[in-house]
Write a structure and sequence with these properties.
With 555 residues, this protein is α+β, with helices and mostly antiparallel strands. Helices cover 39% and strands 19% of the residues. It contains 20 helices and 21 strands. The strands form 8 sheets. A 5-stranded mixed β-sheet has the order 12-11-15-16-17, with helices on one face. A hairpin with a 6-residue loop joins β18 (455-458) and β19. The protein starts with 12 loop residues before the first strand and ends with a helix. Mean pLDDT is 88; it is low at 479-485.
């Protein structure tokens, strides 16, 4: 098989020389290393610099290689082996799947592939905390529900318990919690775990919510968060804390508010606040970062206000099954399930688990760009909330429409309007990608916006595009932009027809439909208009009717 060898090693590509016959033990360990990361390709018979030097004679028969790997891994890793010839040199490409858990050699060796600080990959031992961290990312274990070693009930702070009860009232949480005594509250929220002898021990959730700061520093040393304000690269605020989570959310909000100016928009009899950052989106982003971070990884959770964005980042990548391509639609998969459930019952975060929607809504309803997760990688989740100027007239339109409906605009509709503001024109397929749903869902969203008067459709079904309506452009005082957009398609169609006629001498209505992707009546109207203007002339009638260049084009 002719298969190109990757140019360099990476997280998912490893080269192994076979000139001196790679021992089976090392080969199996390399497979385990890849399987415990993202999977990938192990190239046998290739030097570290990517030069193919060939397989050892003992490895020329590849038929038993997959079976050997399966027999020497636990649980068995099912690899596929491909024979590849590069420049007359025979090498092997061993494709390793990502393990849905953790894998070891039969000798009990756990390894994982990682990227070093210099950007090159290496195989490193999987330490106990690495294994637990990986298991939690797959949802195989909930670390937040486990007792913390050495912790006792004396590590709980009575003041934080009171803060928790006040938070339930403040955020509209489960009011049943207010009727419970301390022990019942601990059980209801998973703050403690009952032991076989009947005693109770604090869980990670318990320490994070109502633990004393000194206990947190000692028992959960990875817990740390920072608030930073950078103005043109100058540091105006930079402080790190280890508070319990409810106090952390309060502290971050309190310190952020002076940097969050707010103007007011008059809509009818009501004044609508327009902040730099929507506080609902801020709270959801901050709480999500604190809840879903990997508490086995060192590193602080950061909230950083930059010149053009608020950036929230936390250690630990997205959990298995959640990607940037399904973030809006996938079912909630919290890394720390017990902690997430407790924060939902308290009311700090969205109880439906759709906190991402809250973050998106907090930006899009003000006419700002959508949240940006593009800097997220395997080690960190990075969320960027743009803080550019709000579009006040667009906000007025949204408020009016939501009052007319007596309900919020669906998040898919806000994403569609945001995309149209950015791209000017949009197809159903392009919107489907943005809302991470199927084409049918995107079409329903655009049709609903068309009926509401926000959007106009142009073109036939197959080539139909959508743009903001004249009412929207007029409301935002950009009528010239509407004229440019609405007038672009007809002018483009006319030029396409004239170009075709110049090349082929004539054109039929069916050819216009195919060329411009128009319906029959749209093509008929276009040809009639061009004929009246004298740019083309009709010859013949019925099925034999064709159009040729008019006098103003030939003259």
């Amino acid at each position: 098989m002719n298969l190109p060898i990757p140019k360099v090693e990476s997280l998912t590509v490893e080269f192994k020389s076979d000139r001196k016959r790679l021992p089976d033990t090392e080969l199996v360990e390399a497979v385990v290393c890849l399987a415990n990361a993202e999977g990938g390709e192990l190239w046998l018979g290739v030097e570290d610099d990517g030069t193919p030097t060939g397989l050892h004679p003992d490895h020329r028969l590849l038929a038993g290689l997959a079976g050997m790997v399966a027999a020497r891994t636990s649980p068995s890793v099912n690899v596929s082996v491909l024979a590849v010839e590069v420049g007359g040199v025979a090498v092997a490409c061993i494709r390793v799947p990502k393990a849905q858990g953790e894998v070891a050699t039969q000798g009990g060796v756990y390894l994982r592939r990682r990227i070093k600080h210099d950007g090159t990959p290496e195989c490193a031992p999987m330490l106990p905390h690495d294994r637990t961290s990986r298991a939690s990312s797959f949802g195989l274990v909930d670390v937040s529900a486990q007792p913390v070693a050495g912790a006792t009930l004396a590590d709980f702070d009575p003041l934080e318990r009171e803060r928790l009860r006040q938070a339930v009232q403040q955020y509209g949480g489960d009011r049943v919690l207010l009727e419970l005594d301390d022990e019942a509250l601990d059980g209801a929220l998973g703050l403690t775990a009952r032991q076989p002898d009947g005693s109770r021990l604090p869980t990670l959730t318990g320490l994070l919510l109502v633990g004393r700061e000194a206990a947190l520093q000692q028992r959960v040393p990875t817990h740390e968060f920072a608030f930073q304000v950078l103005a043109q690269q100058a540091v105006k605020f930079n402080e790190f804390r280890r508070y319990p989570l409810l106090k952390a959310v309060d502290w971050l909000e309190t310190n952020f508010r002076p940097y969050n100016p707010e103007e007011e928009l008059q809509v009818g009899l009501f004044r609508v606040p327009v902040p730099l950052v929507d506080m609902g989106a801020f709270r959801e982003a901050v709480a999500n970062a604190l809840i879903h971070r990997d508490y086995h990884r060192l590193g602080a959770m950061h909230v950083r206000l930059e010149d053009d964005a608020l950036v929230v980042s936390n250690p630990g990548g997205l959990v298995d099954g959640v990607t940037l391509a399904n973030l809006l639609v996938t079912e909630p998969r919290p890394r720390n399930r017990a902690l997430a459930d407790a924060m939902k019952r308290i009311g700090v975060v969205e109880r439906s688990g759709r906190g991402v929607d809250t973050i998106y809504r907090g930006l899009l309803k003000f006419g700002r760009p959508a949240p940006d997760y593009s800097r997220t990688d395997a080690q960190n989740v990075v969320l960027r909330l743009p803080t550019g100027p709000a579009d006040l007239e667009f906000r007025r339109l949204v408020v009016d429409e939501e009052r007319r409906r007596n309900a919020e605009l669906p998040i898919d509709s806000l994403i569609a309007l945001g995309a149209l503001r950015e791209l000017k024109r949009l197809t159903v397929e392009e919107l489907a990608e943005r809302i991470q749903r199927d084409v049918a869902s995107a079409k329903r969203t655009l049709e609903a916006l068309t009926e509401a008067g926000f959007v106009e459709a142009h073109g036939a079904t197959r080539g139909r595009t959508y743009m903001l309506s004249a009412a929207v452009y007029g409301a935002v005082a950009d009528k010239a932009a509407y004229t440019r957009q609405a007038g672009f398609a007809p002018i483009q169609h006319e030029q396409m027809v004239l170009s075709y006629v110049r090349q082929h001498g004539r054109i039929k209505r069916a050819e216009v439909m195919e060329l411009c992707r128009l319906s029959e009546w749209q093509a008929k109207y276009l040809l009639k208009r061009m004929n009246a203007a004298g740019s083309i002339v009709l010859n013949g009638s019925g099925k034999s009717a064709v159009y040729v260049l008019g006098a103003i084009q030939t003259g």
